[in-house]
Amino acid sequence: MRDIPDILPAGLDEEALWAALLRRDALPGRFYGVTSQGVVCRFGCPSRAPLRRHVRFFDSLAAGVAAGFRPCRRCDPDGARSALHAAAVAEACHLIESAETPPSLAELAARAGYARHHFLRLFRDVTGLTPRAYGDAVRARRLGEALAAGARVADAVAGAGFGSESRVYEDTGRVLGMTPGVARRGGAGETIRTAATEGPLGMVLVGFAEKGVCFLALGDDEAAMRADLTARFPKARVVPAGPEAEAVVQTIIAWIEEPRAALDLPLDLRGTAFQQRVWAALRAIPLGTRTDYGALAARLGLPGGARAVASACANNPVALAVPCHRVVGRDGALRGYRWGLDRKAELLRREAG
User: Fold this and answer.
1) Domain ranges, residue 110
2) The one catalytic residue among 75, 93, 214, 324
3) Nearest-CA neighbor of 215 among 225, 226, 207, 203?
4) Is there a smaller number of Cβ atoms within 10 Å at the N or the C end of the chain?
């Protein structure tokens, strides 16, 4: 390797960097080389910590490569292996999506050129699901779309690739989060009572189903929020709520003004089993704290499932009571929030206070 001077990131000396390396802190934009192995790693690399005398620090991957180090295969600092893995999984997802019957794990692994156990771990890390669970989700989506379009339950079940109606009815929570009849009706026969009011962060719209709050939105445009509710319950009868809703609405407004504890409301949440798991995990995040999508996925036993968790957060129909605003990017930056990033920032500020 060429003998070139190390370039230290501004504001951090070698001792601080060494301490961060031992703690496996993630330091975006900072790298270290290991002379005994000839590799350059990103901070947070899961490999065993090297000896201090073998370490060189760099402020860019390019600097490490220029010094003669090659990218580590474990932490993949240049993203090359991750890109290959993502492409292989994307191809497998396409095969599952386009097939009438989901391909077996052996077929998918052979097509991708990996051993079965390795491809299973790879697929789960990228999507947050096993290939079988992904195939089940595809069939559930097809079933839900067909039912929403008004197809007969038997026809929708057969068209989605389920062998029989009994398989769907045996575990309705896992497949659709509700019975096929309820999904087909799209809220038909239900009455959704709504209450809207101005709050500290703009308009608040609450939808009440028989079992509890099924919709809670924040925004500036009441018509847009009502359109969102209608899209979720296209065939439901939507009527104004009576005086009985006043106490719930005032509880919500008071909580926004001064968050003190978890916003405890009677909820009627409808989603897939995976979404329900994520929403339950969100409700367990303590007031005044925050986590990132990857950490939340790991807590659910899905290392690498950050994108799947983010998708479930994006489909959360109930703001505040299911506090998806407490999930941020790994670098601490605020990511998408369906009710606006400014509101997300303000909610976090109020909770921290």
Assistant:
1) 80-128
2) 324
3) 207
4) C
